[in-house]
């Protein structure tokens, strides 16, 4: 059984989700990837609610988070995660098409770990996601989780 922490991918665009999943698969990470399609579902996953209430009690190794999504956008998810004592240290990478300075500034003010603009070029996109996956799932050390 895989004891590595999962990667949580929060992406509402099916094409971007598929490309990201392919890129992560191409770097041969053993981490499983959980895909959710909006911020509400991401928070349900992180807080063990709804269809995720019986999932294993662990935070992801990293959350890859899009900004522009229906129901609850990525900035709202980031704000909610950083105000939750159990999610405060969760590594969060904004993986977004937003090049807007206000989004970038707000994300860092809220405590995002990294902000990556999705490259338009296919190869650059694949390389970016591969590098993100390798760093956050294999290289980066995160603090141990507190008791839930």
Helix-strand sequence: EHEHEHEHEH
* Total domain modules: 1
Overall 3D shape:
globular
CATH top level assignment: Alpha Beta
Average pLDDT confidence is 89
- Low-confidence segments, ≥5 residues, pLDDT <50? none
Number of contiguous helices: 5
- Kindly identify the CATH topology: Rossmann fold
Number of strands: 5
The oligomeric state is: single chain
Architecture per CATH nomenclature, i.e. the level-2 architecture: 3-Layer(aba) Sandwich
> How are the strands ordered across the major sheet?
2-1-3-4-5
> How far is the first residue's CA from the last residue's CA?
23 Å
Please tell me how large the radius of gyration is: 14 Å
Helix proportion? 25-40%
Overview of the molecule:
The protein is α/β, with parallel strands linked by helices and 148 residues long. The chain has one domain (26-139): Rossmann fold, CATH 3.40.50.2300. It is 39% helix and 14% strand. Strands 2-1-3-4-5 form a five-stranded parallel sheet, with helices on both faces. Strand 1 (7-10), helix 1 (14-26) and strand 2 form a beta-alpha-beta unit. Helix 2 packs parallel to helix 3. The longest helix is centred in the C-terminal third of the chain and has 18 residues, at 122-139. It is globular and about 40 Å long. The two termini are 23 Å apart. The model has no long low-confidence stretch (mean pLDDT 89).
């Amino acid at each position: 059984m895989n004891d590595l922490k999962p990667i949580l991918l929060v992406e509402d665009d099916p094409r971007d989700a598929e490309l990201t999943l392919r890129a992560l698969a191409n770097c041969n990470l053993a981490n499983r990837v959980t895909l959710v399609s909006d911020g509400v579902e991401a928070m349900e996953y992180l807080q063990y609610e709804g269809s995720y209430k019986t999932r294993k009690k662990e935070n992801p190794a990293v959350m890859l988070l899009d900004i522009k999504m229906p129901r609850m956008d990525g900035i709202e998810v980031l704000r909610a995660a950083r105000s939750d004592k159990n999610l405060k240290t969760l590594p969060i990478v904004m993986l977004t098409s937003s090049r807007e300075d206000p989004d970038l500034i707000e994300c860092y003010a809220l405590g995002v770990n990294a902000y990556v603009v999705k490259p338009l070029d296919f190869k650059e996109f694949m390389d970016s996601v591969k590098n993100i996956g390798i760093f956050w799932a294999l290289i980066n050390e995160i603090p141990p989780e507190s008791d839930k």
